[in-house]
Amino acid sequence: MNNSYLIPANSKKSLLKFGAFNTVDLIIFGCGVGLSFLLMMMLPVDNFTVAILAITPGLICAFLVIPVPNYHNVRTVIINAWNFYTTRQKYIWKGWCFKDGETDKK
Questions:
Q1: Cα–Cα distance between 18 and 14 in angstroms, integer?
Q2: 56 to 4, 12, 32, 48, 85: CA distances (angstroms)
Q3: pLDDT tens sequence across 31-70
Q4: 6: phi then psi, degrees, rounded to nearest 5
Q5: d(CA 30, CA 90)
Q6: How far apart are CA 84 and CA 16, in angstroms?
Q7: Position 105 pLDDT exceeds 70
Q8: Cα dihedral 15, 67, 37, 18 in deg (nearest 10)
Q9: Which of 42, 29, 9, 103 minimizes the C-alpha distance to 73?
Q10: How confident is the model at residue 90 (pLDDT cuts 50, 70, 90)?
């Protein structure tokens, strides 16, 4: 290896619960499932639309904490997209042909 070392790609997974979730994700998922459970006990789930309405909070929270490639989860993708579209983007070109406003003095 010529005096070099390799960092494994999954080195951050040891910081997560169950290897995929952080504490906030588990709280969001637990609240959604708990609310769905309470709605299923309180509402008459004999009707299909009422049953779907009762499990909707759990489904939405599960969708938010599902892991996706290149991001932590869907919630992180939504936050990054929101920040990208709501903040001012200023890209400064620093290429090989840019002189930072300086001119050649000849």
A1: 9
A2: 50, 31, 8, 12, 28
A3: 999 999 999 999 998 999 999 999 999 999 999 999 888 7
A4: -115, 125
A5: 39
A6: 26
A7: no
A8: -30
A9: 29
A10: confident
Say whether 54 sits in a helix, a strand or coil: helix
Tokens representing 13 are 């997974």
Largest CA distance in the chain: 87
Q: What is the pLDDT of residues 4-40, one digit of tens each?
A: 766 666 666 667 777 778 888 899 999 999 999 999 9
Residue at 11: amino acid letter? S
Q: At which residue do the structure tokens 């789930």 appear?
A: 45
Contacts of 51-56 spanning 24+ positions with Cβ under 8 A: none
Q: Which residues contact 15 (CB under 8 A, 6 or more apart)?
A: 22
**Separation of alpha carbons 8 and 35, rounded Å:** 38
Q: What is the pTM of this model?
A: 0.66
